[in-house]
């Protein structure tokens, strides 16, 4: 049973797994800077592998109670930050507090450098994005084959919901303009969490002038 979280400072630690009572098989080697032991602590589960020092090693350790307090505190801080941000997104004005919390817990923060293409016109839509910091540029290929800018997305704006709700391909290409931070949610999680918002989103999708992001 796991009661300690480990952070490796020096040396190497090999990871062995035994399947079906057979001989342990080496599956991984931890190196300085790696951490392990967190899953057993988070889920109160038995250790899933055996970790054995393969050289002299120095590790930092954290007990179960301290680890859980830190993890819970960090999760709550992130939730409060994301809830405050999500409440400023116009399309989420009608959701309940519980739906906002569920969505906040489901978001993943991603960072992109200038020029990174987040989605390409014509591609399948797998993610819904909200701009947290920075700017993204949306462009579409017109009838003559020229690439034309159609919108700039800034903090609080979002894109990707049309493709997720209707299975339509991406209607535009979205590229980072400078450093960009987004909150992302994948198709399966989006459908589970945002399902009750289908009608609201579909009404908003018709209002392209109000939400320029929705051409994507």
How large is the count of helical segments?
6
Strand content: 35-45%
Question: What level of helicity do the residues show?
Answer: 25-40%
Number of strands: 12
How many whole angstroms does the radius of gyration measure? 22 Å
Mean pLDDT: 83
Poorly predicted segments: 207-214
**What global shape is seen?**
elongated
> What about the largest sheet?
6 strands, antiparallel
Task: Kindly describe this structure.
This protein has 6 helices and 12 strands. Helix content is 28%, strand content 35%. The protein starts with a strand and ends in an 11-residue tail after the last helix. With 216 residues, it is α+β, with helices and mostly antiparallel strands. Helix 2 packs across helix 3. Strands 7, 8, 9, 10, 11 and 12 form a 6-stranded antiparallel sheet that branches.
Question: Briefly, what is this?
Answer:
This protein has 216 residues and is α+β, with helices and mostly antiparallel strands. The protein has six helices and twelve strands. Strands 7, 8, 9, 10, 11 and 12 form a six-stranded antiparallel β-sheet that branches. It has a three-stranded antiparallel β-sheet with strand order 4-1-6.
Explain the layout of strands and helices:
Layout: E1 4-10, E2 13-17, E3 25-30, E4 35-36, H1 38-42, E5 50-53, E6 58-63, H2 64-86, H3 97-106, E7 108-112, E8 117-119, E9 127-141, E10 147-153, E11 158-159, H4 161-166, E12 173-186, H5 187-194, H6 198-205
Antiparallel strand pairs: 1-4, 1-6, 2-3, 2-5, 7-12, 8-12, 9-10, 9-11, 9-12
